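STRUCTURE:
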C-alpha cells in the first residue's frame, strides 16, 4: 500500500516520499522489510529513541513528533493519536462497514457485551465481540490480551469481521484504551455506560482523569445508553452533542427503561421491564448486578430498533460468562463460585448478590493485585469482612510486589471488624483450605481471578486455572 493512502486524512507537517509500505507498527521488535514505524512515547519507552535503528532493520518510513534528521520521516503533532488512524487506513477502514456498539464502565462490561451479542444473534445478525475474556467473530473465538486491543490488532479484528459478513461489533472499551487513543477515529452507533467506581487509579492517577477517559467514548456516538442510577450516569453525557440519550434504572421511575418487581433466585433474576411497552424479563444469571447488566443490554437492543419480544426471548436463553459468577461443578453439599471481582465495588456487588441466595455461610477468598492501586486494598478487606461470614486472605497477581506486604495492606481494612478470617498466602493452598473446611450449604467465593488461567508472581507467570485447582483438590479428597 502506498504511504499516501496510509496517511489519508492525517495532518502531516512536512513533505515525504510516497513509498510502498508492507506493514505498520509501533513496536520496534515487529519491524519487517518495508514497514512504517510510528514513534510513540510511552511511560517507560520512547519510540523516537530507536528511529535510526528501525530504519537499519528495514523500516521504509518513520512517523515522529519531532525532526529526527533521518530519511523519509513524517512529522505529526501527536503520533500516538495518529497510530489508530494509520492502522485504520492500512486495513482499509473496516469499521466503516460495521455498526459499532461500545460498552464502558467499571463493572459489568463483559457480561453486558455478551448479552448484547446473544440478543443480536437471536434475531439472526452476524456479530463480532471484543472484550476481556475473549474476542469472537461470530462463533469463532480468538484470545484476548487486553480488554480493548491495540489499534493494529483492533483494526485487524474489524477486517476479519467484515470478511466474515458481520454487521455488528460489540466491544468493551476500557478507560486506558480511551486515554491512549486506541479507538481514535471510530464512530460508535451506540455507546453504553454501566457504572463508575474506584479502579485503575494507578494508571489515571485522579478520579477526574478516570471519568474524563470514560466520557471520551460518548463524544463519538450516535446513541448513548446510560445508567440513571449511577452518580455519573448523566454526567457522562452532559454537554455532548448526541442524537439520542436513553436511560435505564432499577431505583427510580425517571428513565427510558425501568426494572420493577425484581425477584432474585438461585437460578437467576426476573423483573418487569417498563418502557414504551411492558414485558417480563428472565435472566438466568443470579445477582442484583445481573438486573443492571441485562437491563442495559435490553435498552441497547431496543434503542437499535429490535423488537421487545425478541429481546426478552434472547435474554431468557442467555448463558453465563466464564469467570463471572461462574459455578464450579463439585458434586458436594457446598457451592464454589469463581468471579472476576477485583475492585471494592465489584467485590461488594458479588458478595451482596450471593447473600440474597445463600442459605449457609459465605466464605470469601480474595487478594489484591500488585503494582496496582494500593488504596483499594484496605477497602476490599473491609468490604469482604463486613459482608462475609468467613474470609480467606491470599494472593491475587502480586506481580513484582511482595505478596505478604499486599496482604498486610488488606488486613488494615479488616481491623476492628468482628469476622473470622485466615491468611493463606499461597492461593492454591488457600483454595484447598476453603474446600477442606467447607460446611454444608456454604458458598465459597473465589474472587479476583475470574476468567484468567494464570497467576503473575514476582518470579514470573505460571499456569493457574481455578477450575483445575478445585477439581484437583476435590479428587485428592475422594
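SEQUENCE:
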Amino acid at each position: 500500500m502506498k504511504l499516501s493512502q496510509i496517511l489519508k486524512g492525517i495532518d502531516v507537517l512536512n513533505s515525504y516520499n510516497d513509498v510502498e509500505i508492507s506493514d505498520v507498527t509501533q513496536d520496534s521488535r515487529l519491524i519487517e522489510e518495508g514497514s512504517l514505524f510510528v514513534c510513540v512515547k510511552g511511560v517507560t519507552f520512547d519510540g523516537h529513541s530507536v528511529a535510526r535503528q528501525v530504519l537499519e532493520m528495514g523500516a521504509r518510513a518513520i512517523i515522529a513528533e519531532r525532526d529526527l534528521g533521518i530519511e523519509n520521516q513524517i512529522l505529526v503533532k501527536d503520533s500516538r493519536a495518529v497510530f489508530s488512524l494509520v492502522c485504520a487506513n492500512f486495513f482499509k477502514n473496516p469499521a466503516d462497514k460495521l455498526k459499532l456498539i461500545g460498552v464502558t464502565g467499571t463493572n459489568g462490561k463483559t457480561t453486558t457485551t455478551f448479552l448484547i451479542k446473544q440478543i443480536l444473534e437471536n434475531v439472526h445478525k452476524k456479530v463480532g465481540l471484543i472484550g476481556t475474556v475473549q474476542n469472537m467473530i461470530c462463533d469463532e473465538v480468538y484470545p484476548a490480551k487486553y480488554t480493548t486491543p491495540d489499534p493494529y490488532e483492533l483494526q485487524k479484528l474489524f477486517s476479519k469481521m467484515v470478511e466474515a459478513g458481520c454487521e455488528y461489533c460489540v466491544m468493551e472499551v476500557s478507560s486506558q484504551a480511551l486515554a491512549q487513543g486506541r479507538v481514535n477515529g471510530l464512530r460508535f452507533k451506540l455507546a453504553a455506560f454501566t457504572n463508575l467506581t474506584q479502579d485503575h487509579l494507578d494508571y489515571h492517577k485522579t478520579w477526574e482523569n478516570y471519568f474524563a477517559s470514560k466520557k471520551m467514548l460518548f463524544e463519538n456516538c450516535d446513541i448513548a445508553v446510560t445508567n440513571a442510577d449511577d452518580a455519573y450516569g448523566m454526567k457522562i453525557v452532559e454537554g455532548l452533542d448526541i442524537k439520542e440519550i436513553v436511560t435505564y434504572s432499577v431505583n427510580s421511575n425517571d428513565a427510558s427503561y425501568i426494572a420493577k418487581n425484581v425477584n432474585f433466585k438461585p437460578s437467576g433474576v426476573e423483573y418487569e421491564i417498563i418502557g414504551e411497552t411492558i414485558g417480563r424479563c428472565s435472566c438466568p444469571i443470579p445477582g442484583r448486578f445481573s438486573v443492571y447488566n441485562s437491563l442495559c443490554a435490553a435498552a441497547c437492543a431496543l434503542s437499535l430498533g429490535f423488537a421487545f419480544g425478541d429481546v426478552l426471548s434472547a435474554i431468557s436463553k442467555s448463558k453465563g460468562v466464564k469467570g463471572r459468577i461462574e459455578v464450579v461443578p463439585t458434586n458436594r453439599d457446598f457451592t464454589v463460585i469463581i468471579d472476576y471481582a477485583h475492585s471494592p465495588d465489584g467485590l461488594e456487588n458479588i458478595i451482596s448478590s450471593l447473600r440474597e441466595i445463600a442459605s449457609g455461610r459465605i466464605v470469601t477468598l480474595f487478594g489484591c493485585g500488585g503494582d496496582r492501586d494500593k488504596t483499594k486494598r484496605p477497602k476490599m478487606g473491609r468490604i469482604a469482612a463486613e459482608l462475609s461470614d468467613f474470609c480467606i486472605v491470599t494472593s491475587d497477581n502480586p506481580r513484582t510486589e511482595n505478596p505478604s506486604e499486599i496482604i498486610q495492606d488488606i488486613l488494615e481494612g479488616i481491623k476492628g471488624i468482628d469476622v473470622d478470617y485466615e491468611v493463606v498466602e499461597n492461593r492454591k493452598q488457600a483454595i484447598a483450605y476453603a474446600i477442606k473446611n467447607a460446611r454444608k450449604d456454604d458458598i465459597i467465593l473465589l474472587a479476583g481471578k475470574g476468567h484468567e488461567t494464570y497467576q503473575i508472581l514476582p518470579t514470573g507467570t505460571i499456569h493457574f486455572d481455578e477450575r483445575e485447582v478445585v477439581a484437583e483438590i476435590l479428587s485428592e479428597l475422594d
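REMARK: The longest strand covers residues 257-265.
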